C-alpha cells in the first residue's frame, strides 16, 4: 500500500477547556475521496484547519503530503488546494482575471497559466463568460469555477469545506463529477459535508460526533455494520448513542 498522503495520530485541538477535536486518528490514501462527515459544530472545520497548516494542534501528530503540521506548514500550503462553502474567488474580477491571479499565486508560469486557463474555461463551458465578473455568475457556476481554480496547480490534496452548500441537487451532482475527474487524475480529495447522501460518493468516510471520530469505513461497510438503509440512518444511530453516553 502506498504511503498515506494524510496521517494523523491522536490529533487534538483545545480552546481553553473546550476540546474541539479529541484524539482523532486516521489515514488518507493517495487519490482517495475521503469524506469527513458530521453535524455543524462536530469539529470538522477545526480538524481541516489543522491539516491545512492554518491552526497548530494542541496535541497529537499529523503529516500532510509528507510534511509535519507543527514545523512545515508553509510546505503543506504549497502542496494543497482549498475551497470553502463561503466561496474563495474575487467577485469583482472576471473569470479569466481570477484564473490568472490564482495561477500567479500558485507559482505557475505565464505559459502554464494561459494553457490551463483555456483548458479550464473549455471544460466548464464558460467561453461566453470568461470576461464577465465572477459576481454575475450563478452560485453553482461559482462553486465549480472555485473548485477548478483550487486545483489549477495540480496539488497532491484538495480540501473542500462544505463545497455544495446552498446549491440545487443537479448542480451538486455536476460538482461531484468534477471531484471524480480530479481523483482520477491522482488528486486526493478531503471533503467535509453535512449532506449524508454525499457520503455515498466517497471511497471511505469518517463520522465526527462531538469532536470524536465515531465511525470510519466505506459507506457500504458502515451501512452493513449498523443495519442501516442509508447514511442518514448510520449518523442518527451514532448521534443517538453519543447522547446516551453523556
From TrEMBL:
InterPro entries in the cross-refs: AAA+_ATPase, ABC_transporter-like_ATP-bd, P-loop_NTPase
Coiled coil feature spans: none
Domain of life the protein comes from: Bacteria
Keywords annotated in UniProt: ATP-binding, Nucleotide-binding
Species per Swiss-Prot/TrEMBL record: Chryseolinea lacunae
GO molecular function: ATP binding
Listed name of the protein: ABC transporter ATP-binding protein
CDD domains referenced in this protein's UniProt entry, alphabetically: ABC_subfamily_A
Domain (ABC transporter): residue spans on this chain: 6-235
